[in-house]
Amino acid sequence: MAKTLPKTDAVIVGVGWAGGIIAAELGKQGLNVVGLERGKERGVKDYYVVHDELRYGIRYELMQDLSRETITFRNHAKERSLPMRQLGSFLLGEGLGGSGVHWNGHTFRFLPYDFEIKSQTVKKYGAAKIKGLQVQDWGITYDELEPYFYEFEKAAGISGEEGELGPKRANPFPNPPMKETPITARFKEAAKSLGMKPYHMPSGNMSQAYENQYGAKLAQCQYCAFCERFGCEYGAKADPTVAVIPFAKETGNVDIRNFANVTEIIHDGKKATGVRYVDVQTKEEFIQPAEMVILTSYVMNNTRLLLTSKLGRPYNPDTGTGVIGKNYCYQILPGSAGFFDEEQFNTFMGAGALGATVDDYNGDNFDHSDLDFIHGGSISINQSGYRPIQYNMVPTDTPKWGSKFKENSIKYFTRALSIGTQGASMPVQHNFMDLDPSYKDAYGLPLLRLTYDFTEQDKNLYNYIGKITDKIMKEMGPSKINDRQQLEHYDIVPYQTTHNTGGVIMGAEPETSAVNNYLQMWDAENVFVIGASAFAHNGGYNPTGTVGALAYRAAEGIIKYSKEGGLLA
Amino acid sequence: MSEHEQKQESTMSRRRFIRNSGLVAGGLVGGGILGGLIGANMKKDEEVSDTGGHGNGHDQVAYQQSPLYFTNPETFGILQAAVERIYPKDENGPGANDLDVPFFIDHQLAGSWGNNTREYMQGPFFPGSNFQGYQSPLKRHEVFDVGLAALQTYSRDKYNKPFAELEGEQQDEILTAFEEDKVKLRGVTSRTFFNILRAATIEGVYADPAYAGNKNMEGWKMKDFPGHQMSYINQIESEKFVEIKPNSLHSYTK
């Protein structure tokens, strides 16, 4: 028997960046908040022995325990979907702070083009340009979102400088850019000599000691090179457990419960009345009644909870109608690896978001009239620090094991550099999420099923941008450059990126979107669904900056709703 | 390394295994003399402690050079021979055996990773496409049991000799057949077994020495990787390559 707890104003499902921001903002306004987090509590003090590549970088100590819950995957609807039994392609977070604990901190704002992609593309190139793509406008413009971006950047202490071709800013970054290194300088010189406009990557690692609007003190980044997949023992990374959650707790209005795994949104078909959750340690079941239910549990669980709770209209891939599970996107990652026989670089030093970027081939910053794809991507060099198990970059003709592999993997550990792209990913009707008919989680609920493959648009973007990254790399002067692998079918095994998006997308019309531009559900006005799940497509940058902006936008909406009620847009 | 040395090393390694696994060796002989054998083995360990190298000084025993998963010296010998082909000793430095990679793998198989405790292992099981990832119902330690036994069977069938006693090129040929999925195994593909073996070998070369491999941080030294360092803030802008003496996790507590 589930125990029913006293009612609260708002219950938050998942306490990472989005959940932490909502908790802080609602708590500040005097609203009572219960934050339910399925994983354990953790903070800076828990990273005493964090410089352990095997434990954190390879065995994924901070990531989701898949024995309890995973997704199933297939490339297309005629295939049998099978469980993602091990982490690989993307690394799902778990625990207080979510993936905000172990991210690198690349913090961009999506381009104005992203938010109006359909109308701008059709206007400039005609309707035929988006044929076969399920792109749509986001129901908000960049200018409307600008102040919310800044609010997030202040919370996260972003260190950066404005790029010439990036979105226009009303205020400078809260912190100056990270240090220039021989590697970032080399990339910039090469890009400049090709006529591009490089700038320092905006970073969630602090370039100097910083205090944010919540009074959180963040230390200066030490460039120790254990960042992505690791927690920061200095508190020098923008991490929700440092930047926003302590403030939320200090308001006295926020009660965060760990090991609380939400299994159901309880509702009457029009409004939610609360959530059901299981204590993952004691297995006790609770019902938490609430005036408002706020989902901040990442793309996968935001979508799955709505589907298992039968809230909202499930997406139908045969007709393209319905909304929950719609427009799943990923990211396209063309890049170039260069090998420098005569030079040695300090590749083992770095910081998660230490890097340099060009926007010349992102969004609609270049003419697509004669191209067979839309959008593009930001191209960067990133000096996050090589680690010896994960980084074994070798020229293409090197065998995978044996003496030659050993020789080359040793030699090039400090003599190989790579340029990467965050390439935009466009939605199509047949890439989507629904519930798996056979596989269940530890609580007997169906797993989320992902049906996804790369499209012609993706391949064309990949091939075109790949030639650009080759050009920059060549200009950097390596002894050789690796041939790029062809982009064929999406593979769930090799790590690519944890930039999954869509499933509960935002928009201006209830027919084609699940939430409005306050991230409020069209079909249940007291439910807000926040995260990259709201992205109508995935842009050409790392998504967290845009997730943060949407979280602040939603926080404003939730506070407004708590006073006035009704649909906000 | 000459073929002779190769053979000698693999024989030596097997002897060391037996030496270091007193309980197993004792068990094979019989319970009656078990106590005496353990005593004898402890003495031998102390005698060879100079070469252990994991301790702070020369007077410490490399206690972690003991099997926690494998119970059969022959199986351990197959593992030793295989990892040495994947990461051989050569002019670039020590190979997998000198770095204690077999002990690293053994310890990993005895723990959470070997038992897939944080992975989804519920059925039903189907082979899956090339893009759907690991779909075997076997746990990793079972994959090693099956895979190592199959290396031995394949070797005996083809060369009439145990895998560990083959020439290096013959061992490579067999490993390649496994890598190319040409060998039928029970419950798992030979390619999956090979890929896990290869990945675990590289992990054992470069993981922190706390995990029993990467002996004396020699794996890191080959790559100019300085292990765990608290800060590079004063070196990150350096135009020159900076050589830094490596540090392990042990430095947190020493």
Mean pLDDT reading of chain A: 98
- Compute the CA-based radius of gyration of chain B: 20 Å
Query: Any idea of the CATH class of chain A?
Result: Alpha Beta
Helix and strand composition category of chain A = alpha/beta
Structural class by secondary-structure content of chain B: mainly alpha
Based on Cα principal axes, name the global outline of chain A: globular
Round the mean pLDDT of chain B to the nearest integer and report it: 83
Q: How many individual β-strands of chain B?
A: 0
CATH third-level topology of chain A: FAD/NAD(P)-binding domain
Largest interface: A-B, 66 and 62 residues
Largest sheet of chain A: 9 strands, mixed
Distance between the termini of chain B: 37 Å
Order of helices and strands of chain B: HHHHHHHHHH
Strand content of chain A: 15-25%
What is the total tally of β strands of chain A? 23
Tell me roughly what share of residues is in helical segments of chain A. 10-25%
Q: What is this structure, in a nutshell?
A:
The complex is a heterodimer of chains A (569) and B (254). Chain A has 569 residues and is an alpha/beta fold. Helices cover 23% and strands 20% of the residues of chain A.
Describe the overall structure.
The complex is a heterodimer of chains A (569) and B (254). With 569 residues, chain A is of the alpha/beta class. Chain A contains 12 helices and 23 strands. Chain A has a single domain, classed as FAD/NAD(P)-binding domain (3-Layer(bba) Sandwich), CATH 3.50.50. Chain A is globular. Residues 1-57 of chain B have low confidence and may be disordered. Chain B has 254 residues and is mostly helical. Chain B has 10 helices and no strands. Chain B has one domain (3-21, 66-253). Chains A and B meet through helix 2, strand 5, helix 10 and strand 18 of A and helix 7, helix 8 and helix 9 of B.
